[in-house]
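In response to the reviewer comment on reproducibility (Comment 2.3), we provide here a single inverse folding case reported in full, input and output, so that an independent group could reproduce the run without further information from us. The structure tokens appear first.
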């Protein structure tokens, strides 16, 4: 079972991190991603097992490309994706992924 489309009612602009330049990180072109945002400061566990505090999470479909280090812009506010954690459904099938935002 995948994440239902009815849950993914919001859109954000995502720019993937490309390489570090002399004056900071470089980012690719902006693309629109469908998701569900949850703006709450909370303690979460990363895919490596580390506990961190994030300001928000975004639920995305499993086929949506999103990697740690990407820049997410929501209503003009640019934030960084710290980690992307898989969500498994029945039968251990990948149902979606959660992007952890700081």
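Designed residues, in position order:
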């Amino acid at each position: 079972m995948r994440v239902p489309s009815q849950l993914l009612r919001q859109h954000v602009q995502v720019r993937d991190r490309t390489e570090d330049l002399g004056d900071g990180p470089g980012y690719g072109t902006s693309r629109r991603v469908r998701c569900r945002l949850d703006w709450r400061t909370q303690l979460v566990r990363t895919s490596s097992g580390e506990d961190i505090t994030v300001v928000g999470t975004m639920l995305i479909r499993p086929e949506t490309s999103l990697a740690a280090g990407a820049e997410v812009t929501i209503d003009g506010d640019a934030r960084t994706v710290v980690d992307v954690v898989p969500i498994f459904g029945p039968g251990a099938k990948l149902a979606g992924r959660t992007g952890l935002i700081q």
